[in-house]
Batch of 2 targets.
Target 1
Amino acid sequence: MSAVVEVSHLTRRFGDTTAVDDVSFSVQKNTIHGLLGRNGAGKTTLMQLLTGQDFATRGEIRVFGEQPVENSGVLKNVCFIKESQRYPDDFKPRHVFTSAPWFFPNWDAALADRLIADFRLPLNRRIKKLSRGQLSAIGVIVGLASRAPLTFFDEPYLGLDAVARQIFYDRLLEDFGEHPRTVILSTHLIDEVSNLLEHVLVIDEGKLLIDQDAETLRGSATTVVGTRQGVDAFVADREVLHRDGVGGLASVTVGRLTPQDRARATEMGLELSPVSLQQLVVRLTGSSRTSSSQTVLEQSA
Amino acid sequence: MDDSRPIFVQIAELIENDIIAGALPEEAQVPSTNEFAAFHRINPATAGKGVNVLVDDGILYKKRGIGMFVASGARDRLVAKRRDQFQNEFIAPLMVEAEKLGIGEAQLIDMIRKEGTA
């Protein structure tokens, strides 16, 4: 497989703030990537850099092997759906869908029509009068129907209801199956998308915390629950990602366990439960001491 | 798709179950990777990995340009494999628990018979 995006030692500073801090990674062709992290972690800045809408302070970006900034050869193959896309004041949704093919050579009008029906989007209402969810639906439709070889979705579904989000996931998988392309999806609804992702990037305070295969990440942490003495004895020499306790009970999240570890825990009467991707991200980015958490995962990967 | 085991292992197991139950007879065509992905709402690469596990085991075979099919003899081999698993995963822990509770061999056989007639 070849890399569609290659980033090395990328840094973006705004005054005293370092939004993206010495980040290096690559994105393989025809994969669905999750870009996860807390508010202000640097996700949007990173995507703006990758789509040539912002300039790097330091470091290298290659998209389809070239610099993205002011490079129409690269940008015509890129679609970036932003959380709050602005449209001209008198625009109606139908104007968006008529003008989209000018920018996206692979535009599929039939798919767009189908999605418009799925999302029940009124085509002739002024965009200013649309609800938050309908506004998001426009973005999702453009993102899917553009069939751009590299598509970014930045929090695409603000205000979308559960039904509409499910439509988005289903149509994304369906269309991705028929027309493979590279998708980078930034979201806070991690549990909803975790099974769709092939690769996961987690960024926190501008630093890349996780760059890992989604399958490998599953089961890379486990929560051990039991009596305080039992749990303490079991996790004695392990690094702990998170600790909770009530009275004599303790619940501790640790890195990957071997089958022997699992057998020993069962013998000791401890309960083991898997940690979902969402819980893992919360554990890793919830505190400010992220560096020690990272080493736990690197050792267990 | 929600326990701690990798999703591709679970996909492979689901297909195995369908073959054992006869829902996917031998020489029948198996749904495509994209169909599995859409149905289970998982990444197509993950679904493909699950299918490939079964191809490597000789349970499924590929016809180039047509699709994936159940190999002949697949069901018998799966049943044999599952019987071994049954011994390890059910009988062995059953004996351990019976021992712990002081249930003797005769009593255990008795209990199994009772379950069978129920």
Target 2
Amino acid sequence: MLQVVVPNDFAFSKIGNWGRKTLESTEAALKYHILTTPINLGSILKGQSIVAATTLTDPIYTNVTGGQQLILTKQPGGEVVFTSGFATRGTVVVEDIAFDGGIVQVVDSVMRVPEPLDSTARNAYTDLTAFLGALHATGLAEEIMEAKDVTVLGPRNAAFQQLAGVLSDTPQEDLKRILRYHIIPGAVMHAWEIQNASSLVSAEDNRPLRMTRLGNYIFANSAQFLQTDILLSNGVVQMVDNILSPDYPYARPDVNATAQRPVLTPTGATATGTAAPTPFTSDLPCTADCPETFATGTYSPTWRGVANPYTPKQDAASPKNSGLVGMGLGVGVLAGAVLVGI
Amino acid sequence: MLAKSPSPRAGSHRLVTLLAVALAFVSASTATTAQQVVGRDLESALAVQPELSTFRGLLKVGLSVSYPYGGTLQLTECSPEISRRLLKLPKGGCHGKSSRA
């Protein structure tokens, strides 16, 4: 029995131009609208969220065990909302239309297939671009984006700005240790699944992260969750307010404070905000819009052994690239060109 | 005063009532778990709902979405307007890659 999430005409009208949509990506999008196990919307409690696996299992689009996921949340008012990639949300407007083989839920937005961390940070959650840049600067980005079933604790840009002085003096190997501590491999942990006083095992030498939960407030060590359950092609990101350190695994939150203090001591420049420079963003590999002289980046035009579906095609009018420039141009895990819409 | 004991006839009537309730419950449960037998396919179910024409059009461009229990959801009716608008297919092209420009 299937559960089909059907966007109504209004949902499609909001998308407008579907861009370079191919038959393959459209089929992937359709599969993302079909749940493998029907969910009785009436069984979801108000305020509760649950995850639903979809029939989208193509490795070119997803690296999540059991199929790419949608999140269902019942709002306090009783409405059920589906959440997909790029935090695209659709409210169920007609429930439980039966057909031979399943039921249909009509929603008011087209669900968007989650994309890799690179494109998600660049195009939807730009407050994660310093973190993404740091991953690229240390050569960890591709490794993390190709891993199966990951939970990423992504510090927001202000956390990097606040520690700009410290980070600029940190040797690359130490920086790698810090960044790996933000990755939980082999587990897609949604916010509602995190228990108070539990531990998660990080990719940095299996060092633990201690989780604290007080009602809706969640902390990893002393870093507070700011935005939760940002779906990725290979897991989920939880945006946090501070950079974690594997050398301070026992840092605990001050639950009475309005903002948590960083575990590393700020030195030098600590200005935050859009006017202040954002560390590591210059390490983001270039997209098709970059000048030809830009020569960094390690992005591969292939992804898990196949052509990267997120790589924008270069049209004839674009400058020709070669060598490292070409590698950088591949990046784009998006550059706005791809999968516009879904 | 002793309570009047129920007659055997009254007992059997109660048993029948209980059985009827149980049967009703079982059949209701069965209906819930076997909603697939409703006498209409997905296309028919969507057709009776307003404002689902775009999604129906998407299904009509020849895409096949596998059912987990075998068979495919493959509709043959063609919708050139939808396919042109959403998939940038050439005029009249509604059946997948072979008809793309």
